[in-house]
TrEMBL record:
Entry keyword annotation includes Zinc-finger: no
Organism: Duncaniella muris
Official protein name in the record: Surface glycan-binding protein B xyloglucan binding domain-containing protein
Signal peptide: 1-22
Keyword entries, A-Z: Signal
InterPro entries, sorted: Ig-like_fold, SGBP_B_XBD
């Protein structure tokens, strides 16, 4: 099948060469063409990735290339799609065929009714209008507010072209049709999690622009690392951290089982981790310039749960790291800004020095949700909080060591097996997170094109941050084709 695609791609190139030959003596602009009748007989979708690369169609989507078949195309001056003037290259025009790519800015729902779903071709002394359905780009899902919700919780699905979603199908074929809220711009929809969803998988939704599908990360507990309720093993150590009465000494960074708290929202998560334990908040909080302020770990010690080979029945070892992610839930009830960061590490081999420390090149990821880029492209602090439990998704390809490898175009792209091997070879196998309150400096290019540094000096932190449900999930995105045969496995 791939060979057929390459043959078709070659044919397109040769076809364009044939079109271009018409322009050698500027014949394209010969006046004789300007009054010649324009007739569109058929429309074809051009897609070299498809099993049918030149497919006759009755509709097309924004961003797609179409081929008009008929006669009278030579000398074409203007093309309008839904009333929107659309660029075309006359090198791809012959008298019987022409190629046009539907501009992504073409109006759909807000197009004037008189021109909606039309292709208008214009020459100096003639024109034609052809009725043809124009759809928005494929609907896509980019993120989900909470991928591990309890029954009755509101779930918001984000993406594009999600207009007028009327059906949401959850793992196990459970359908939701009631109380679906829609964003008029198609950037999100929401639904209430029903009871009885026991399987893991994807969210599929049907709307005005077709079907959209999330990765298979919804309700997915298959590869749980630690949920603080018996799935995975919480580790803590350090005999010097406690006094003779077994009380944790002031300022100790290690988070013990006694530091865990009940789900503050009562949503069914059981025990959760308060990342700055209440005992440290009672002591006045985390001082400025404080590395390794807190830390929470799995058990390590070559425990069977630490060998992530156990996850390969659900995520094959050969899976690219761009298609595997860490997920966890976070609840931040009060605005968090200006200071503090969460350092996540795949193994216990760092000192928790923070964003500007040596571990920036290690197997770490820095979660700093208040640190964003403003409209001018400058680093900025925007207060971050959540209205409830919110899912954080970190592709494993974003961990600093693997991100560096992927930036090297000559390097072999890492797979899930590389993470498994890294952890199994580590002398301290624990997976963990920690709160660090050190200064942050971000290097960026300013509006004058020069390198600059944005500084965020640390300050006292009394932030409430709750964490739960560390897990590894599939993270492969899928676009559902309008033509089911294109979704079949290619040979």
């Amino acid at each position: 099948m791939k060979s057929l695609k390459y043959i078709w791609l070659t044919a397109i190139v040769l076809l364009s060469a044939g079109f271009a030959s018409c322009d050698k003596d500027d014949e394209y602009f010969d006046d004789k063409y300007q009054g010649r009748k324009i007739v569109i007989e058929k429309v074809f979708l051009e897609d070299v990735e498809s099993s049918v690369p030149d497919r006759e169609v009755t509709f097309a989507r924004l961003g797609q290339m179409i081929r008009l078949e008929g006669h009278g195309f030579m000398g074409m001056k203007k093309v309008y799609i839904n009333g929107y003037e659309t660029y075309f290259n006359r090198a791809y025009v012959s008298d019987n065929s022409m190629l046009v790519t539907l501009n992504t800015k073409t109006p759909i729902t807000n197009a004037d009714e008189n021109v909606r779903n039309t292709i208008r071709l214009v020459k100096d002394r003639t024109e034609t209008i052809y009725e043809f359905e124009i759809r928005a780009a494929f609907p896509t899902i980019t993120s989900v507010s909470n991928t591990l919700p309890g029954a009755g919780q509101k779930v918001t699905v984000y993406g594009s072209s999600l207009h007028e979603t009327y059906l949401v199908t959850l793992p196990g074929g459970i359908e939701v049709t009631d109380n679906i809220e829609n964003d008029p711009d198609g950037e999100w929809y929401s639904f209430v999690m029903p009871s009885g969803v026991s399987q893991a998988g994807c969210i599929t939704s049907d709307g005005a622009n077709g079907k959209a599908q999330s990765p298979d990360f919804f309700n997915n507990r298959n590869c749980m690392i630690l949920d603080f309720d018996g799935n995975g093993v919480h580790g803590f150590w350090g005999s010097s951290n406690k006094d003779e009465n077994d009380n944790i000494k002031p300022g100790v960074s290690m988070i013990y089982d006694t530091d865990l708290v009940d789900d503050p929202l009562g949503t069914g998560y059981g025990k959760v981790c308060q990342l700055i334990p209440q005992r440290l908040l009672n002591e006045g909080g985390i001082s400025s310039a404080k590395p390794r302020a807190t830390e929470v770990w799995t058990t390590g010690n070559k425990h069977e749960t630490e060998d992530w080979t156990r996850m390969t029945p659900f995520i094959p070892a050969t899976t690219p790291l761009t298609e595997v992610a860490l997920q966890f839930e976070v609840y931040v009830p009060n605005p968090w800004s200006l200071t503090g960061q969460i350092v996540i590490t795949l193994v216990n081999n760092i000192s928790f020095s923070g964003y500007n420390g040596d571990e920036r090149n290690s197997n770490t990821f820095f979660y700093i949700p208040w640190l964003v880029t403003d409209n001018e492209g400058n680093p900025a602090s925007i207060p971050f909080f959540t209205e409830g439990w919110t899912t954080v998704t970190v592709p494993l390809s974003e961990f600093n060591n693997y991100k560096a490898i992927l930036e090297d175009k000559e390097a072999v792209a890492p797979t899930f097996q590389d993470v498994i091997t890294l952890r199994n070879d580590a002398s301290n196998q624990q997976f963990g997170m920690g709160f660090v309150n050190s200064d942050i400096e971000v290097t960026y290019t300013n509006d004058k094109g020069k390198e600059a540094v944005a500084k965020f000096p640390s300050a006292l932190s009394t932030q409430e941050i709750y964490i739960d449900n560390w897990r590894i999930v599939p993270y492969k995105f899928v676009t559902i084709s309008d033509y089911p045969e294109d979704e079949e496995t290619e040979e």
